[in-house]
Amino acid sequence: NCRRFLREIRAFHGSFWRRMAAGIAAYSGLGWAGIHALQEGNRLRHGWELDLPRLEMEPVAEWGPWADEIWEATRERCSMIGVRDHTTLAYLYPLANERWTAYRLRQNARTIGWTVLLVTRMADNPYFGDMLVGTLLDALAMPGYEGAVAHSSRRALEEQGADLILTNQAHHRWIEAFRRDGFLTGPSNFLLATSVPLTALLQPPDSIHLTRGDGDGRIAS
Length: 221
Prior knowledge:
Blueprint: H1 2-8, H2 16-28, H3 30-45, E1 56-59, H4 65-74, E2 80-81, H5 86-92, E3 100-107, E4 110-121, E5 132-141, H6 146-159, E6 164-167, H7 172-180, H8 196-201, E7 208-209, H9 217-220
Parallel strand pairs: 2-7, 5-6
Antiparallel strand pairs: 1-3, 3-4, 4-5
Helix pairs in contact: 1-2, 6-7
């Protein structure tokens, strides 16, 4: 929601002139045009595919062995990843917690991924003002389906009315998936620090799979 984003995002409230410029951009439509131009440019630069497979999103009532199949298919493709079998997911994202919603994604009855989404109504937040913020906390997909899962997750958060959608990703396949879907890179205070010996083991470094759910994101979101 470009108008609410430009009005509410606190980075634009640092000075009178910033607030005025953001207000003009919000109400004139220039902000909408500029942001959408950046998003479309991202899609073009990163090879946006119009033929992404259509996925069915089913709210998860219980983490089951179907999640283990995705875990086994993806774990060896990461230089580092936190355990995401169904037992661990039940601890990380207990489904009795109504703050987030987990979805199982299928293509023709075959499970190809899962995602955990959170929608938060902010109130005078120091970063987001009063926006309704959608967060993709975590996701995992069969190799090659990252783009379809990213796209479906974004659409689900849009349908819930999110003014701004954000995610934290480290793995290059997921970063590319979200960029192809129009996501823009922004500042982040999420940090991973590793020792020199550990860094040498984590090669290639862009194959580390870390998301907001790996840190304190479930508390801070």
